[in-house]
Amino acid sequence: MRDIPNAFAAHLAGGVTTLCRCWSLRRRDGVALGFTDHDCDLGLAGLVHAARTGLEAAEASAESGFAVSGGDVAGALSSLGLTEADIAGGLYDGATVETWLVDWTNPKTRLLIDVGTIGEVRREGDAFVAELRGLAHRLGAERGRTFRATCGADLGDGRCRVDLAAWQTTGRVTGLPEPATLSVTLAGGFADGLFTGGMLTWTEGANAGLRADIRLQLGTLLELWTVPPRPVAAGDAFSLTAGCDKRLATCRDRFANAINFQGFPHMPGNDAVMRAVPGSEPVLDGGSLFR
């Protein structure tokens, strides 16, 4: 059962309410933003919640037990709120959102409706719809180790222990053959595929501070999985981190790190389950199977 503050309960019992919704958003980099569907800005817990953003609650759901609940928030992309470049750059991925029901005549009279995180963001022209995921969605996240043939660690983390400094380089953009393909110069020569599956971090230019996953590296051509959210210009600088496909052969031959491999490469797979017992297979020589 939800505990309703006495002041808020008294306001609800008054017969006429002056309520609006406020959303307090905190990104993982510490930036805090406030939004409201009221027609004037509201100060809430020291954070100004901006109106004129076109933000409104589009849909909400509640589930019993451990089912994941959530909702949607719809609005217009503008300089006062969420911008398309910031959304495409992943700045709002996993951001925490508090949803408040507030008396706009006295913002201290308020009720916390829900706490969630931003999930999928859909964009259509100058509008967006952001999915709000309830806290229960974290129960579906992978925790601890799992039994699988490939490595469960990330390259360079505490379990992998590879020194990333030896597998990084810098470079600059020289051209854009395709929107998601970069022609670059690198500080050194590297084999094809070394940075496939790796990470590109922009250090100069309009995308400085943003990261991108590398789909393919062939010589001085880099193909990214997604188009950079902001324009890329010749001369923009970046750093590269090598990729790892998490196979034992790659861990052993490329990184000489098989001792820290965090997978189970010799674990039988589905093919072993479906395989017949040796000696029990029928002889498939074209003859009858019933003689």
From TrEMBL:
This is Bacteriophage phiJL001 Gp84 C-terminal domain-containing protein. InterPro entries: Phage_phiJL001_Gp84, Phage_phiJL001_Gp84_C. Residues 193-271 form the Bacteriophage phiJL001 Gp84 C-terminal domain. Pfam families: Phage_BR0599, Phage_phiJL001_Gp84_N. It comes from Methylobacterium pseudosasicola. It comes from the Bacteria.
